[in-house]
Each structure stands twice: as structure tokens, then as C-alpha cells.
Design brief:
The chain is α/β, with parallel strands linked by helices and 298 residues long. It has eight helices and eleven strands. The chain is 35% helix and 22% strand. The chain has a seven-stranded mixed sheet, with helices on both faces. The chain has a four-stranded antiparallel sheet with strand order 1-2-3-9, covered by helices on one side.
């Protein structure tokens, strides 16, 4: 594990505002960005991702029921995000950074876009390439060579929180977009997850450190998703990042949720919260939703 400077302003001064096992979240004293410390290292992160998706590889990869839940939960949310995009840009070249198993990529193609995806996980690469027959590049976005002003739309849906250098990634996206092109970002709403995590840690009957699934590295997933989530954004810090990357025009909105299916108490509570937060936003314009969506124009 490595010491880490603030990925936005490159300063190191700040205080740790949350800790879970070996990792913590530091709030930068200079720009207020919250980020995970220490940095777990690229090899550790790759091992965690592979351990997460290993059960989904090989013989299970092409089974129809394998992605049924993923498609069912994601379809409505992705349809709404596509509707936002189509208001600004109808057709053209679209790049999805962190395309997962390609559902959004496939939907964008069906909506008239010429698409390409990027991801790092082997099983996802094979599924998109061999089953969906869509173009995909394996690698980290910041390391892949792209032409300048090549794309009309670049999406980073639930991916910017995972990268080591978010400013460099957004700057690269700006260079790769055509003039008038749009960048679409969705990230977790840090204040909501921090509040939820602190409440759960205070409950005497809730063992926070053992409440989530254990990664191959020994790290345990909880609400802040340490160490996979390397950056923890607020509306303010994401705005600062976009300005520094050269975007002058951008708009925040409520990010459509992947509506959970199932009947456990946790899922039922999440459904109730999604409905409540949407109504609360309509009344107050205050986002207590679990995610932000921002559309930035070059």
C-alpha cells in the first residue's frame, strides 16, 4: 500500500474522517475532496476485481440467467440516462468508460450511436466482444491511446470513483470529445453514504466490519466500498474537478437508480428510500439520492 496525495490538488494535508479496517477516507484541507488512503496499489485492485468476478467467468459466462438480474435492474435507469443524452446529442460516436457487461453500450447502439467500451475485467471483455459482438478495449482509460476530438459522447457511469487520478481522466475525456460533445458522469453521493455508514457503525447490534462481503484481499465491502472506491465526490468537488478539466457548462440532476429486485428487508428499505428521495428532490431540489448525475458540455 502507498501513501497518497490528493488526486485533485496534489496536496497531502487533511484529516481522516472515516476508517474501516486498513483503509480510511481523508478530506483534503485545500480543496475538500475526499479520497481513500492509503492507495492499495494497482495489483491489489486488479486482484480484488478478478476475485469479485471469478464466479461469473468460464462456463457460467454465456448462460442466459447469468445477467438477468443485472439487465432487469439496469434497464430502466439506463433508459433514463440515454434520454438525457439524446436531448443533447442524437447519434454519433459514444465511448463508455467502465462498460461492465455492456448493457448500456448495447442500448446506446440500438438508439443510433456508434459505440465502443473500455473495461479491465476479463469476463466482461469476453462477454461484450463474443456475445454482444460490440467493440471493446481492455485497459485503463488513462493509459489507452485515443485520438483528439474523436467522440461525441463519453460516459463514466459509476467509474470515476474507481480511478487513481480522476482529474487526469476527465482532462483526457475533454481532449477526446469533439467541440460541443458531452461527458456524462454518475458517482455516489458521498454525504449519503457517509451518514449511513456512521449510523450503522453506532448500532450496538450491527457488526459493521463483518456486514459486507469479503474481497480476495481481505478487505471487506461496506457502504463506502473501500478500497475499490478511491474517490468520494460531493457536488462541490465534482464541480471543481470539471472546471479544472476545462468544462465550463455542466448540469447536475438526480441520477436514475438501478431499482433493486427481491424481498429482503434491506432491499425493501432501499426501494422505499429511492421513492422518498425522488419525491424529496422534486419538492426541495436537495439531492439525498445515493448518486449524482452530471452532464458536462465541451
Amino acid at each position: 500500500m502507498e501513501e497518497r496525495k490528493c488526486p485533485l490538488c496534489k496536496q497531502i494535508e487533511g484529516r481522516v474522517i472515516f476508517r474501516s479496517e486498513a483503509y480510511g477516507i481523508r478530506k483534503c484541507r485545500h480543496c475538500a475532496l475526499m479520497y481513500t488512503v492509503p492507495f492499495p496499489g494497482s495489483e491489489t485492485l486488479r486482484a480484488i476485481y478478478e476475485s469479485l468476478y471469478r464466479p461469473q467467468q468460464e462456463s457460467d459466462l454465456y448462460k442466459e440467467d447469468f445477467l438477468k438480474g443485472y439487465h432487469r435492474e439496469g434497464f430502466d435507469a439506463f433508459s433514463k440516462i440515454l434520454a438525457y443524452i439524446l436531448r443533447e446529442q442524437k447519434g454519433g460516436k459514444l465511448l463508455e468508460v467502465g462498460c461492465n457487461y455492456g448493457l448500456f453500450l448495447q442500448m446506446a447502439q440500438q438508439s443510433g450511436f456508434e459505440v465502443c467500451g473500455i473495461d479491465i475485467v476479463d469476463s466482461m471483455i469476453r462477454y461484450v466482444r463474443e456475445v454482444l459482438k460490440l467493440p471493446i478495449i481492455q485497459g485503463r482509460f488513462e493509459e489507452i491511446s485515443l485520438k483528439q476530438e474523436e467522440f461525441d459522447v463519453i460516459t463514466m457511469l459509476d467509474s470515476l470513483e474507481h480511478v487513481e487520478e480522476p482529474l487526469a481522466c476527465v482532462e483526457k475525456a475533454a481532449r477526446s470529445l469533439k467541440q460541443g460533445g458531452i461527458l456524462v458522469i454518475s458517482v455516489p453521493n458521498t454525504f449519503v453514504y457517509l451518514l449511513k455508514s456512521r449510523i450503522l457503525k453506532c448500532l450496538p447490534f450491527w457488526d459493521y466490519e463483518k456486514s459486507g462481503k469479503t474481497y480476495g484481499s481481505g478487505a471487506t465491502y461496506n457502504e463506502m466500498d473501500l478500497p475499490l472506491h478511491l474517490n468520494h465526490f460531493t457536488k462541490h468537488t465534482l464541480s471543481v474537478l470539471l472546471h479544472r478539466a476545462g468544462f465550463k457548462t455542466f448540469e447536475f440532476s438526480l441520477c436514475p437508480e438501478k431499482f433493486p429486485y427481491g424481498h429482503s428487508m434491506r432491499i425493501l428499505l432501499r426501494k422505499k428510500y429511492i421513492i422518498f428521495s425522488e419525491k424529496f428532490f422534486k419538492l426541495t431540489r436537495i439531492n439525498i439520492h445515493s448518486k449524482f448525475l452530471v452532464i458536462a458540455k465541451k
